[in-house]
Hints:
This protein is of the alpha+beta class. The protein has a single domain, classed as CATH 3.90.470.10. It has 3 helices and 5 strands. It has helices at about 15-20, 30-35, 40-60; strands at about 1-10, 70-80, 80-85, 95-100, 100-110. The strands form 2 sheets. The protein has a 3-stranded antiparallel β-sheet. Strands 3-4 form a two-stranded antiparallel ribbon. Helix 2 runs antiparallel to helix 3.
Amino acid sequence: MQVHAILKNIPMSPQKMREVVRQIQGLPALEAQAVLQFVPRKGARLVAKTLKSAIANAENNNKLKPEALRVKEAVAGTAMRIKRFTPKARGSAGPIIKRRCHVRITLSDE
């Protein structure tokens, strides 16, 4: 049985989030929570929140035990980009692209 949770439109670039997400891929769910507790990055708190939601979904909706769950897939994908412009030399404009991402965590009991 597979269970997933998604956190959308996180104001952080997907590249930074992927560094955190790769650390928990393939780990047991409770061990992944422990690992995220000690990762000193802003993204770790958001990934931990998503993982906690996925574990709660498995317990409440499918009556699965958290000890039996494993992180099958953890993905950080791109979301919408906010485009801004800043003034540059000689009256031109330079783009500022504020990136966002979605985090999807899939847990499996196999």
